[in-house]
Each structure stands twice: as structure tokens, then as C-alpha cells.
Design a protein that fits this description.
The chain is mostly helical and about 90 residues long. It has one domain: ACP-like (Non-ribosomal Peptide Synthetase Peptidyl Carrier Protein, Chain A, Orthogonal Bundle). It contains 4 helices and no strands. α1 packs across α2 and α1 crosses α4.
Amino acid sequence: MQTMDEVAQMVKNLIAEEMNIEREKITPDTRLVQDLGLDSFDVVSLVTLLEAELGQDLDEEKLTQLVTFQDVVQLVMQQLKAQSLDSSV
């Protein structure tokens, strides 16, 4: 399973490359909408990219709670842990 740092780097790379945002502007406390200027369509696009990268759907209920970069990283980590638990059963 990937570490938190590896997941953070993967998410940061996706945001930077796909949303055309400088990596230096993305910190754990960076807010997706207020600080990066992402709109709801951008957030949906980001989630779609993450799902493609992970090969699985993310928890839709938690998607509405994504405010910061760290929120996205934590959601991905939770999903990876759940996947790891499911595959070990």
C-alpha cells in the first residue's frame, strides 16, 4: 500500500498537471475552491482522474466534504486502506 507522502505526491501531480496549477501553490491546507480557484466541474474532473488512477470509485458521500488538498489525500488513503482490507479477506 502507498504511504501518505506517496499519495500526496500523486494527488499533487494530478492537480498540477490536469488543472494547470503550480505545485508550489499546493500545500496540505490549500483550499480547492478558494485558494486554487477550482469550480465544481474541476473538482468532479479531479475525482474522475483519481478514480481512474486508483482503478476504483471514491466514496460519493465524502466527495461533498472535500475542502482542502489534505481532505483529498485523506479520502484517497481511506479508499486504499479499505481496498487493502477487502483484498486480504
